[in-house]
Write a structure and sequence with these properties.
Shape: globular
Distance between the termini: 31 Å
Number of domains: 2
Radius of gyration: 20 Å
CATH class of the largest domain: Alpha Beta
CATH topology of the largest domain: Aspartate Aminotransferase, domain 2
Low-confidence stretches: 369-380
Strand order of the largest sheet: 2-8-7-6-5-3-4
Order of helices and strands: HHEHHEHEHEHEHEEEHHHEHEEEH
Strand content: 5-15%
CATH architecture of the largest domain: 3-Layer(aba) Sandwich
Structural class: alpha/beta
Number of strands: 12
Mean pLDDT: 94
CATH superfamily of the largest domain: Type I PLP-dependent aspartate aminotransferase-like (Major domain)
Length: 380
Amino acid sequence: MKQFLAIDTARLRTGHGVKWGSLPPDTIGAWVADMDFGIPPAVRRRLIDVVSQEDLGYPFWRGEDPLITAFQERMSNRYGWAPAEGRTRVFTDLIQVLQVMIEAATAPGDGVAIHVPTYPPFLATIARSGRRIVPVSFTDPGPALRQSRMLVLVNPQNPTGHVFTRDELTTLASAADSLGLVVLADEIHADLTYAPFEHIPFGSLLPSRTITATSATKAFNLASIRCAVAHIGPDDVKARLDAAPLDYFGQPSILGRVATLAAWQESDAWLADLMSCLTTNRDTVVKWADTTLGPDACRLPHATYLAWLRSPLAANDIERRAHVKLSDGNEFSEHTSIDTSSFVRLNFATSPGNLQDILTRLDDVLANGTTETLTCADKY
């Protein structure tokens, strides 16, 4: 736990990370979804071993790809889901997975359903591919799904931190099955689920129609490692991918694979300590928001290290006045008619002391707050 009680701001500001490195020296980064902490000791050790051996040639593994085996074992041991053999591919990141699967499972002009607000690069990817973004209601998904060929399910959800319940997932699975939809389940935040909430892999409910995409990058702070996996349930999508040129998929580096293996196989104790810190930080943010911004301004995140806040000021105004950079709510509904301009996203994956500095600065410009409560449409 000690390793999460302080951060090295000099390291963060002078490194290559955009979260702090792109900002003026008087501004705190609390926006992009990286953590301010280091990496698990096992990951550091394995990476140093590879570099010490100067083992940076083209990747080669004897026998079964250990990354696929590690993914299957983690899904089985941690979530009670046994992925089918021979259906997992290695990719560089989840954006690549989404782009490839959109091309394999839909045609230009097809609707792609997704809960909004959502991760901005997903919205950009769907729009740039020439598909239609169809926002899904959290309470009544049917109308959107009937207009779509694919459902992109971000679970746990970014930016709200919502973890879909079994009933919610069962409703989505039943509708997707009856409508013949392909479902891409982005489950990259699954390991960041807080007790007593439970992450349920969508592939365990609708295996024949689900593409499950995940990575160790979020939970273990490895964003630049660029390594992800996707389990492809639909037979027709798998057949199209099998027929595609190999170079279409790229090739994660040795470092990406080694870091991911060390995270999934050797770093669960580190993850448990991290979750203790994040739980405390999450509760601090929610309590602060209730006092400063008013009731219901921040819904308790079930997962992730992100807080979706209703704010009387836009992110740019907050940055200018408080010198804290948050993510602008508008980004999470781009290319749609949904209005998220009254929200900001705060990243609380930092030390308790730095978080307190962030909240104190926000208090100085948001102290008057807002008493406006969330409507049903704003529930998540």
